[in-house]
Amino acid sequence: MLTLRYEVPGDDFTRAGEASSDVKRKLKQLGYNPEAIRKVAIAMYEGEINMVIHAGGGEAIVDIDPRQVHVVLRDHGPGIPDVEKAMQEGWSTAPDNVRNLGFGAGMGLPNIKKYTDEFRIDTAVGEGTTLTMTVFA
Amino acid sequence: MTVNEVVRILNARVLVEGDMEAEIKTACGSDMMSDVLAFVKDQALLLTGLCNPQVIRTAEMMDMRCVVFVRGKGVDEAILRLAQDRDIIVLQTDYRMFTACGLLFEGGLRGECEQA
Fold first, then answer.
1. Cβ contact (<8 Å) for A101 and B54?
2. What pTM, to 2 d.p., does this model score?
3. Which of A35, A47, A123, B106 is deepest in the core (most CB within 10 A)?
């Protein structure tokens, strides 16, 4: 089992995705199945972007073993008041400047659900959000 | 078609080189990266009017070979460096999105996106 930890900086949109990119390269080096790699990369990347847009950054912990990749993304942002709404395609609270960057279309969480085999959101308003996702090899 | 053919059809400038004889079968055009991440499957080429490093990151996550910036938009050094590092070809065309997509479609490229 390999565990990777990353700080996701909250103040630099241009760097969002560095952790996902690194995980993708490590999985390639490990000879992981390409479809699983892509699913992990996309889901984690959407999560990372969310952390930067909404939560001022956070941390990512990735556990890799031959059967599955387990990703935990934890932030101390504002939390999600209505998770059900947030899971709806097209529902977004992102400001216009984020939309101008190509995100904030309300596809982030639905995309994560779509590309993962297991996905859980733990969130508390004013405390933060933790996304836990698993992709099977 | 090959990347070289894309260059010819779009009268494009090559900003970051790569395997220019690589075969491109399908493409996708969008300024919304979340839509690209949601609906695209196995497309090798992304056409976009959006100019920031997340375009390259999105292409990287999706295993795309080539990004075409439409409308002759200025592409900064940070974007080019990232593309180079990730082995993603970058082209720039003066055509607008609709025309660029149309020309490539006419040339035989297809979308193959899941229907939304």
1. yes
2. 0.91
3. A47
